[in-house]
Amino acid sequence: MTWRVVARQDVSAAVGTRSAKLLLGVLAAAVVMLGYMYPITGPDPITTAHFPAFVTGTLTTLVPFVGLLLSYSAVASERESGSIRLRLCLPESRASVVLGKLCSRAGLVTAGLVGSLLLAGALVVYPFGDLLLPRFLGFLALAALFGVVWSALGVAVSLAASTRRRALVLGFGVVFLFAVVWDTAVDALRLGLTAAGLIDGELPGALQFLVGLSPGRLFGRVTTGFVTPNASVEGPWYLGEWVALAVLVLWAVGPLGLAYWRFERSDLS
């Protein structure tokens, strides 16, 4: 079987679960609600190009949980049950299994995310907002990339763990680090260095680059730089949106590549 067959089978199995419907439903409901609230509470002008700045904070919290929880068991569940050994005897390569699982889980996350953003965009435009199509399409592409990043991290976790429980614990650790405590830790670091007299309220550029390597901060930077009108990412070139975009792509392929390298050499018996 090819990776396309694996992806189709996995999509059929995943969409039938209650947990997948619940996760995608929560994500869609939150995004659509923000699309409804933005014309009411957001500052003028009300446009689809300014809406991303309104919704980015919510996406950087929800998408990691949805992506990880939809993907952490993609391979680990079959490995735990032993069914993956049967799958690999069909014959089917480990690469096709991983690629099929990634396309399946990333496809579900991005479809739910982009679909809800399209509906939210319609609520922004009707009846008094403005549609700035090129910037909104750019935001949809960046949001889809962000969904792929967290789906890939979920599949990477699934490849690295031999059981569903271990994959879940590892996945929650990754989400807790980057989506929950990262910004708080960065703020604490800045305050501590300021109190010690080492900086004057702003982190040095090199340190800003290091603390800005989390997927959520990178997503916020590329959204500001590429989508939001009359906004720019301040600082040296390595803090710019193009570097942030390149690092965000690396998040989509780097951890997954390392996890696959380990999976390819592991004993599944």
What does this structure look like?
Helices cover about 75% and strands about 0% of the residues. With about 270 residues, the chain is mainly alpha-helical. It has one domain (about 5-265). The model has no long low-confidence stretch (mean pLDDT about 90).
Please supply descriptive tags for the structure shown above:
269 residues, mainly alpha, 11 helices, 0% strand, globular
The run of helices and strands is HHHHHHHHHHH
Poorly predicted sequence stretches spanning 5 or more consecutive residues: none
**Total helix count?**
11
Number of domains: 1
- Helix coverage percent of residues? over 70%
Q: What's the end-to-end separation, in Å? A: 21 Å
- Give the rounded overall mean pLDDT: 91
Strand content: under 5%
Q: What composes the largest sheet?
A: none
The rough form would be described as globular
**Alpha-beta content class:** mainly alpha
Beta strand count: 0
Cα-atom Rg, whole angstroms?
A: 20 Å
The oligomeric state of the chains shown is: single chain
